[in-house]
Each structure stands twice: as C-alpha cells, then as structure tokens.
Amino acid sequence: MTISFSLAASVALHDNYHRIHLPPVPLPLPSRPSPPSSVSWSRRLTIVRFTCGFSDMDNNASSSLFPLHRCKTLHLVRHAQGIHNVEGEKDYKAYLSTELFDAHLTPLGWDQVDNLRKHVHACGLARKIDLVITSPLLRTMQTAAGVFGGESYADGVSAPPLMVANAGNSRRPAISSLNCPPLMAVEYCREHLGVHPCDKRRSISEYRHLFPAIDFSLIENNEDILWKADIREANEEVAARGMKFINWLWTRKEKEIAIVTHSGFLFHTLNMFGNDCHPVIKKEISKQGYHGIRVSSNQVLPGLEPITKASSLSSVPIQMSLQALN
Q1: pLDDT digit of tens for each residue in the chain (326 aa)?
Q2: Burial of 274 by CB count in 10 Å (0-12 exposed, 13-18 middle, 19+ buried)?
Q3: Residues 6 or more apart in contact with residue 249 via CB below 8 angstroms
Q4: What's 229's DSSP letter?
Q5: CA 302 → CA 25, 59, 282, distances in Å?
Q6: SS3 286
Q7: How far apart are alpha carbons 242 and 102 in whole angstroms?
Q8: Which is one GO molecular function term here (predicted)?
Q9: Closest C-alpha to 117, from 150, 85, 139, 141
Q10: What is the CATH code of the structural domain delimited by 71-321?
Q11: Of 10, 209, 236, 278, whose CB is crowded by the most CB atoms within 10 A?
C-alpha cells in the first residue's frame, strides 16, 4: 500500500523505499551554502532513499536526486490467462502444439481483465495514462483493449472500434476506442520468440481487422519474420531486447505509460536491473511477479509482494528516472 500525506514535503512510503516530492513553488536561493537537510532547490525534484531494511546494509544506504520532469512512470501488466497457460500447466509439451497458435484469453482470463479494468477506473489510473503499449499478440491486445479501452461499441459511433466483436473467439462485444488512451503495438515487448506456436503472431493485416483502432505503424513486416520454428530466443537475447525497449521508451514524450506484455519478457528485462543491490533484493526482482518496483538510471528499489500468477492479474507501477543532463 502507498500512503501519502501532506507536510512541508509530500512523502510516499512504500515497503522498502521512501519517495519525497518537494513542493513545486520556487524557493529563494540562500545567500550562502546551506546544510544538506535544507530545502533550497528552486525546482521540483524527486529524492529516492534506498532503505532495504537489512541491518548489514545500513551503511550502504544511499540517496539519489532526479528532476521530476525527467521521470516516466510505467504501469506493467502481464496479459491475463491464455489457453496456452492452462494447457501448459497440464503438460509443458503442449506449448509445442500448433493448436495454441497465437493463444487467446480463456473465460477466466476475461474475468481477470474485467476486474483489472474496474480497478484502474476506481483508482483514477485510467485518466492518467498517456499511452498504452502492447505486445502484438492476440492475448496481450485482448488484455490491453479490455482493461484500457472505452465502453462497449455501439453502431452509429464514428470512431473505429478498438476491438471488434468476438475477436479471437472472445465471445465479447466490440470495445470502443472513445475516451481511452491511444494503443500502440510494439514488437520489442513480445514474449520469447521461436518454437512455441502460442508466441507466434498473425499477420498485421489480420490484426488490423480485429483491432482497428490499435496503431500498428511501428511494425515493419506484415508477416511474423521474427518467430523461427526451430530456434528459441535465448534468455540473454530477450533481456537485450528488453533493454532496447527501455531505451526506446525514453524517445517517447509520454510520462505515464501502460505496457501490456508477457511474464518471460518482464522476468528477463527486470533481471537486468538491481546488480548494485543486496543479493536477497536482486533475487526478489528476478521473481515471476513484481509489485511496486521503482527503476531509476542506476538502481532498483523493490517492494517485495509477488503477483501475476495464472489465476491473478494486476498492474505494476515502475518509475524510470534519468539523471539531469549538464
């Protein structure tokens, strides 16, 4: 849980870190140097204190200072339960089945989508999101449209539907693109590539018919040339692709971005962070589920509550900070 209250500075407490927002009102510069405890900055900054909670790490606690305008907040969402998850839990070899090609969501998966949608609207997050980025696979786009899309689509509405009725055997009504953030499909955040048919995408021309209002302009090839039937992408390659994705995010102007992706992609990408943390913390970062992880340019500050098993679905906030340039 995050607790916020108003003092001279607004302080947010979350498990293993403290975040302090200094007031945005410009303050006069002191006539002589002030001690470090004085609030003397003339613009809004974010202070992050690394407080891991381990006694043997107390002497290693450190502080980082970042201008707030150089921060992005990412809301990570692992797709809801797909048919491949159900079959793969019964028999791992099922992942090799061509019947699971571009796996769609199960009825339970759609229930998870509905529950997360209620949450993002109830907490006000739906109004804050500037952009939704989704992996271009059926299960992630179904999740993205269901969670962040408009209300049910009705004939006579001028805007194209975000998702057409019964897309991917969903037995769901069409979803409107009205009053929702833009959705964009990006290949960088796909699941492990190769071998497993469930991770192979359809043609973009087919997706455009199923999801008319999703932006596919950044995907260069209509057919899936990245997926190889006999070569499975190595974990290190997934991690490297994830870092390219993170670097690409810095080219975007949006500050609050939701990313609908896959557990394997999240696991290997986030595993690239936290090398300067205690091994126990590093291990927590590498788990299948994440909650309240904060990423800056040089450290990861985790909240240690695992999520995202096949029976649950949640969004995960991450704040990326880039140090001020000279």
Answers
A1: 222 222 222 233 233 222 333 333 333 344 444 433 333 332 333 333 333 333 344 445 455 566 777 788 888 899 999 999 999 999 999 999 999 999 999 999 999 999 999 999 999 999 999 999 999 999 999 999 999 999 766 666 678 999 999 999 999 999 999 999 999 999 999 999 999 999 999 999 999 999 999 999 999 999 999 999 999 999 999 999 999 999 999 899 999 999 999 999 998 998 887 776 777 766 666 653 433 333 333 333 232 222 333 334 555 555 554 433 32
A2: buried
A3: 72, 74, 257, 320
A4: S
A5: 30, 19, 9
A6: coil
A7: 21
A8: phosphatase activity
A9: 150
A10: 3.40.50.1240
A11: 278
148: Cα within 13 Å, side-chain hemisphere: 32
* pTM (2 d.p.): 0.73
Amino acid at position 198, single letter:
C
Q: Where in the chain is the domain with CATH 3.40.50.1240?
A: 71-321
Compute the residue count for the chain.
Answer: 326
Burial class (CB in 10 A: 0-12, 13-18, 19+), 292: buried
CB 194 within 8 A of CB 233: yes
Q: How far is CA 69 from the centre of its chain?
A: 20
- The residue written with tokens 């952009």 in the block is 131
Place of tokens 């006539």: 31
Residues with catalytic function: 79, 191
Alpha-carbon gap, residue 80 to 89, rounded angstroms: 15
